[in-house]
Amino acid sequence: MSSIMSRRDLDFLLHEWLSTDDLLGRAAFAEHSRDTVDAVLDLAEALATELFATHNRAADLAEPRFDGERVEVLPEVGAALRAFAEAGFLAAPLPETAGGMGLPQSVFGACMAWFHAANAGTTGYALLTLAAANLLSRHGDADQVARYVGPMTEGRFFGTMALSEPQAGSSLADITTRAEPQDDGSYRLFGRKMWISGGDHELSENIVHLVLARTPGAPAGTRGISLFCVPKVLVGDDGSLGERNDVVLAGINHKMGFRGTVNTAPVLGDGAFTPGGRAGAVGHLVGELHRGLPVMFSMMNEARIGVGLCATALGYTGYLKSLAYARERTQGRLPGAGPDDPQVPLVEHADVRRMLLAQKSYVEGALALNLYCARLVDDVESLDDGPARTQAEQLLGLLTPVAKSWPSQWCLAANDLAIQVLGGAGYTRDHDVEQHYRDNRLNPIHEGTHGIQAMDLLGRKVLLDGGAALGVLADRVRGTAERAAAAGGEGPGHAAALTATLDRLLEVTARVGGLGDPRQVLAEATAYLEATGHLIVGWLWLEQWLAAHGREGGFYDGKRAATRFFLTRELPRVAPWLDVVAAADGLTLDLDPTSL
Fold first, then answer.
1. Which helix (H) or strand (E) holds 266?
2. Exposed (0-12), middle (13-18) or buried (19+): which is 266, by Cβ within 10 Å?
3. Which one of 45, 165, 302, 447 is the catalytic residue?
4. Single pTM value for the model
């Protein structure tokens, strides 16, 4: 059994729960079959095991270095990414019209779980490139698609998203990078960016930066932001590489974890390079002027779901490694045993089992959430216009902040428990679990912090269109509960607990929605996110319980045990979170900052 990811769980989720064979019967995915799915998962497992996992520790210890001109990255990173591209993974989820394979997103997500678990740092370059290629294929003009997307799917060009700035951070309304229009239809960009992952390296022939900037006279705030495609090296009409563009680094950031992905502070237009004989980074508008943020959100939302999957994978591999350790390491005796009795494996102790079962409930629940969201993407892409497609779009929008933040919060908690299972050994660099924790600590921060996702969920997604998306979610939760209640066994008890929690969430949501004052509504948005996330994962555990119902074997027993754990130990956390939201007591609003 692999200690990176569970192929058995992926097969269960794709085929026994999500019925991927039915998905492959739709016209959009008719070129694929169960054999395709099995083959691509086999390939992902092999590459992740042989080329990604093997340098995970080395890339952590030998983090990227910047000598003032070039960024030096461990050679094994480039070798792994070349193999990834040659195997077709950079093209796999893109439509055939953009040079891709049209692989269902749910299947591709299962493949990416292997790579994230094996080596999150190296996989980060691929994640960003895939998201950038997707954005350009959807929103770029024909020239941009021809000039950049093909080389990106081949692994010759990599991509980035350049949003944040030193003075603005996550507050994109306050960015100051400017884009000056030129007579030939291009723009010259000037400004500084910060926290840009993959912002410079020698791993590819070129780097395609997707940059948010303002044009002269643009409206203030987010409505004045436009999106530009800014290559590191200019690309000729025939696809040949030309002059170096005016994009350089002020330096790189040295991170607690996730060190394999270089994180940079780029400067645009400082005159270090002068393409065409003048300063300014050459860029081209992507989409409409002043509509950059909505276009960028297509990449950001894809990246957010990818971050959630990465968080899940890091939690999952930590769980598998702590489970293997607990099965092998003998320590202590059970209550009532004599001093001369042999020591037992750690897994025999009830509290160690508690920690392992908690990890299992977090990581397997999160993986179900990730793949369910990916399946919603597939539904949006493959269903005809109608109620089913509309509901898939609504539910995907509602679940995206949860799919980013819940795994980032609770799979990090799983990593913490993995260290605890190993005890002192887990706190040393002799075991992988401490690195997995450090790597995963980034995921509640980047691509929108935990608090930002909470405000997005409550301030926009839940209250949008009179709560229509929340209504879709509620209908699906109730449908699952009804099936579970009819199944017998533990089903009725699980269904009752889930339904009661849903009713309370809907009641509190209605109360908060009526407050009127946005400050009051959002003051406890994080508690609302925690509550909603736990409800959703509880729902998906009951879905897994139904898929396992009536089936025998240790794997299915594990699903039933994890469902019982989550619904009896974790779901009750929702009540106090919702109590805080409902109280709307103004504690954080009224507090004098000087008292902190």
1. strand 263-268
2. buried
3. 447
4. 0.97
